[in-house]
Specification:
By secondary structure, this protein is an all-alpha fold. The chain has five helices and no strands. The chain is flat and about 40 Å long.
């Protein structure tokens, strides 16, 4: 069951990447850019995707729990002076998550 869910999410990852990039670009042009928030968001998103891929490949349920904790850790360790920094962190998280899932989808088809 989780493998089917994973394949469904992977097949739609390009939509998430496109929307997240658009939102993040708008945020960066209209407000102050918080590079540390963006870097932490992308790293956290990629780690979440990596752990979810391990879970979907049947490596154990602990990877699912770790994947759920990754965004929380990113929010805790990132200095967020205002709401814009949080919004940039969340957008970057989805960019990281969807980009890794999209790359995995491309490599899995070949």
């Amino acid at each position: 069951m989780s493998d089917q869910v994973g394949k469904s999410i992977i097949s739609q990852a390009y939509i998430g990447l496109t929307l997240s990039l658009i939102i993040m670009c708008i945020l960066c042009f209209l407000s102050q850019t918080f590079i540390f928030s963006i870097i932490n968001g992308v790293i956290s998103g990629k780690l979440t995707s990596l752990f979810l891929l391990c879970y979907w490949r049947g490596k154990g349920g602990s990877f699912f729990i770790i994947a759920l904790i990754c965004p929380l850790i990113a929010i805790v360790i990132t200095s967020l002076p205002n709401f814009t920094a949080l919004f940039q962190l969340i957008s970057a998280y989805f960019v990281g998550t969807s980009s890794l899932l999209m790359l995995y989808g491309f490599s899995d088809k070949k």
